[in-house]
Amino acid sequence: PINHSKYQLISDNSHETDMIATDPAHNLTQSMLQESTKPTHRGDIEEQCDSKYGTQGELYLFKPSTVIPRLRLFDGKTLHASLKAVVRKQSLLVITESDDNWHYILCGGVEGWCQFSFDDSNLSDVMIRMSEYGRYLEWKGNNKFFCNGKLMFGSDFYFFLFTNCLYIVPTVVYFALVLPFMYEPELCTVLMALVFIYSMINLWMAALTEPGIIRRNPPHVTPVLPPGAATGVYGWKLCETCNVYRPPRAKHCSACDNCVEAFDHHCPWVGNCVGKRNYRYFLRFVVAITVFSAGVLGTSIAVLARLVDEVADDGDGAAASVDNITKTLTKYPAPAIVVVFTFISILSLQSLCGYHLYLVWYGQTTNENLRGVYHGRRNPEDRGPVNNFRSVCCSPLPRSNLPNLSETLPDVEYVHRAYEGSEACRRSSEEPVEKGTMSTATTSVRSTFSTEAPDESSTRRAPRNPNESSQRNSDNVQAPMHVSIPRPESLGHVSQPEVGDADV
After folding, report:
1. Measured between alpha carbons, how far is 259 from 239 in angstroms, rounded to an integer?
2. Digit-coded pLDDT (tens) for 277-304
């Protein structure tokens, strides 16, 4: 096992393995955490890249627009060539060669020829030349980044904003129009405000804390199973999308498109996955908002009863008469609205809170409980109720597997790794694949772009010689992906149907 004090993340600079350092508990060997030997200075990278590949290439940021919503990559320098991939998301691109209006592009593990002209005014806001880039621009998941990568939210960021509105607006009404009618408004205001602030802090911590994402391997890297790791139903599993072996309890979230350690569930209210690193904040938020809702409901009912008594004192009849209640609701509608809204909310909140307390008591996650993973077998993660709660609430926050996503790197850093991926994919596609194994090129295609195994011909590297492309039978190529940087006239009709159309 790795000494925790010496534990460090492998840098993206490592072009030899680019492996993931997940956690010391996963018994990864020190060889997987060796320091990179690749030069780190810009001049050294340019010199090595130029001497090895004969060219350096230029880095661009593609930002889809309504005018140019996607980019297409082809096998050859013709629109009748095989369509390889389509880039629909914001992506970093490396242009390595140019021939008139055709450019050879490396993007996200795929490469091919793309037709466009830099003289086109529509490309000025779509293709942006980058002399340096933020590491977060390489992110393959569906997370939302702000402040140049300093803030990372989940895929449901806008639903998270809706959660805040749904929580804050009734709370403001409660503090402004209900609490002032309490017998001790000052004391109640202070206590309820503290609970509200505590719950909001944990809500935002759950949304902003990286949940335990396992770093992806580049498409050209073959994932390695840690020594001694067992596979199977309850062991390590290969994620073809992330191209990594994920440990037990980890799961690939389809919403955020990331593998998350100790995956509990994807919570749209928090806007993020709930996993190993942010489950404690989620649990605290659920408990705090349940207690707050119970306090709001109790004090609102007390205020409503007091107002009914005051209306009865000013009029005739019993305090609990229908006429007095109707007058109270007409004169003071805010307490009644808060009571109804809070009563509906607390029905689900108390169930959610009790369910997660039950899960912590028995050392399970939501994903494991719903799937019945430990039905009829012992749960190795159950250390007893006291230790389970201590582990969730009081243990140190596990270290993140991700690098500093707000770090700014020179363009040659990305260009170098793009070349490495391109050459590695070409070499692996030319190597024979043993029975029962999968080539790294096939892995990259299947894991990134398709749920089906691609045709063998589609995993080969695109020939840079257009004569080679014309000799290939395009009818036999089942391309699992497509990418191209088209100018407006090349975005229209394509003679070949978009087979295996997928997002990069």
Report:
1. 8
2. 999 999 999 999 999 999 999 999 999 9
Catalytic residue among 242, 256, 267, 425: 267
Residues 310-350: pLDDT tens digits? 877 666 555 567 777 888 888 888 999 999 999 999 999 99
Three-state SS string across 120-147, please? CHHHCCCEEECCEEEHHHHCCCCCEEEC
State the Cα–Cα distance between residues 479 and 449, nearest whole angstrom.
10
Task: Count CB neighbours of 340 within 10 A.
Answer: 12
Q: Is residue 43 packed enough to be buried (19+ CB in 10 Å), middle (13-18) or exposed (0-12)? A: exposed
Q: Catalytic: 147? A: no
**Distance between CA atoms of 296 and 188, rounded to whole angstroms?**
10
DSSP 439: -
* Distance separating alpha carbons of residues 445 and 21, to the nearest angstrom: 23
pLDDT tens-digit map of 468-496: 433 433 333 333 333 333 333 333 333 33
Q: Report which secondary-structure segment, H or E, holds 334.
A: helix 333-361
Identity of residue 447: S
- Is there a contact between 499 and 83 (Cβ–Cβ < 8 Å)? yes
